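(Fold this chain)
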Amino acid sequence: MTKDDDKLPTPEHREPPGGGDSDLPPGPAVSSGATAAGAKEAREAAALRKPTRPDTGERNGREPCPPEVAERLRELDHLRRTGRYASALALAQSLATAHPRLARVLMEVAMTVGIWGGAPAEALPWFERALELAPGHRTTRLHRALCLARLGRHGEAVAEFDALVEGGYRKALVLHMKRAESLEALGRHAEAERDWTLALAEDADNPWLLQQRATARTRLGRRDEALRDLTEALALQQGDGVDPELLHERGLLRAQAGDVEGARTDFQTGLAALRRGDPPALAEALRSTLQALPRPREGHGSTAEETGRRDG
């Protein structure tokens, strides 16, 4: 299973920009070229935004957002979501110049640059300036933590995630997923496994989360539990077709456990389940691991050579 946002448990609705703001002086210059990662990051942002109407009252230490600014922020969001990044960036910067003390405006500049523009290093100072004005705004703090993680500053990101968890931030699922990823990058696999388990408590029937916990458990030597996670993930996918990556991972664990025929079945089924667009490396991994198994006993399935010739 590939790790893309279509497989992440994210809500479909997002908060319109302009809700209850705070302020900041104009931030650093930013580049105008959006990257290919922008669309992916934008989908991730949808997981972090609550579907509410823009408000004009003070909230979480932010100054109120005037209705006319809220309207321009809605326009900004429309430009971003329709792929007009250069126009969105120009509007965001003009709003920051006109309203240097509105933290919501500064946060939207940061979102434009970091998510749609794919430039977390350029976005980070904007988030930090916003937090100087509204230190109690936890969504801004979460996005700053995500920027830190994207920049490889995982220790700082984990500290921010810890503070948000302790503060009872409402997006528990997102927090546990993202903290788990940073903990894995730091080699803290037992804590990462704990966070994947907490994420599954929020979304129990998510195959991607089960796959991530299986990976963490494999690193901890808990092979039987990892096998159960992968088997459960595959069972949840029956209606949509079997994921060849999950079959490859389970086949590897079965082979390590001495279940050669079970591994062979997984690799063969994975090859047959390959879909257009699956990475060539996955097909090669399935073929090579299948061919590395001892030859099947007579009468037990197809040979590695026959299966290896399939292209899915």
Q: What stands out?
A: The two ends are 16 Å apart (CA to CA).
